[in-house]
Amino acid sequence: MKIYFAGSIRGGREDVGVYRKIIDYLNIDNKVLTEHIGDYKLSVEGQGQLDNDYIRNRDVDWLNKSDLVVAETSNPSLGVGYELAYAEKIKKPVLILHNKNKSQLSAMIEGSKYFRNINYYSDVTEAISILKSKLK
Ligand SMILES: O=c1[nH]c(=O)n([C@H]2C[C@H](O)[C@@H](COP(=O)(O)O)O2)cc1CO
């Protein structure tokens, strides 16, 4: 399965370690299209070597091609919010992971009837177990 993993970049890179572990787990049996989100070297500036319009169009293309969107939403990010709204518009299946000790998920996501696969976790081990049970 082709998976679009969404996680914060310009919204803040505090959770890069969590993204890396989730991506590594997903890549065991799937192909994660957005590997760069788990790259420790990628800073809050994002993929500065690429134009913003290139990034946006490439990512929309990947969203269209993906079979599933997995979004880690604990660190609020405009880009992740945009990707979720786009996934909702094209009716792409979405699985959300949110660390309940970090922040409150936006009402725009919680309040949408489209997002019914919202999973709260407290540490990355729990996040991986959720993926294990939901993706089998
Ligand atoms: O350099 C980038 N590359 C990239 O693929 N994105 C996409 C993928 C992420 O899921 C999301 C992060 O958005 P933001 O940068 O607003 O936190 O946007 C975002 C940026 C920078 O905004």
TrEMBL record:
Keyword Hydrolase attached: yes
Keyword Hydrolase tagged: yes
InterPro entries in the cross-refs: 2'-dNMP_N-hydrolase, DNPH1, Nucleoside_deoxyribTrfase
Gene3D superfamilies: 3.40.50.450
EC number, UniProt record: 3.2.2.-
Record's catalysed reaction(s): a purine 2'-deoxyribonucleoside 5'-phosphate + H2O = a purine nucleobase + 2-deoxy-D-ribose 5-phosphate; a pyrimidine 2'-deoxyribonucleoside 5'-phosphate + H2O = a pyrimidine nucleobase + 2-deoxy-D-ribose 5-phosphate; 5-hydroxymethyl-dUMP + H2O = 5-hydroxymethyluracil + 2-deoxy-D-ribose 5-phosphate
Binding residues for substrate: 19, 83, 106-108
Top-level taxonomic group: Bacteria
Keywords, in A-Z order: Glycosidase, Hydrolase, Nucleotide metabolism
Pfam short name (any one): Nuc_deoxyrib_tr
N-terminal signal peptide: none
Assembly mode: Monomer and homodimer.
PANTHER family: 2'-DEOXYNUCLEOSIDE 5'-PHOSPHATE N-HYDROLASE 1
Function noted in UniProt: Catalyzes the cleavage of the N-glycosidic bond of deoxyribonucleoside 5'-monophosphates to yield deoxyribose 5-phosphate and a purine or pyrimidine base.
Family the entry assigns: Belongs to the 2'-deoxynucleoside 5'-phosphate N-hydrolase 1 family.
Protein name from the UniProt record: Putative 2'-deoxynucleoside 5'-phosphate N-hydrolase 1
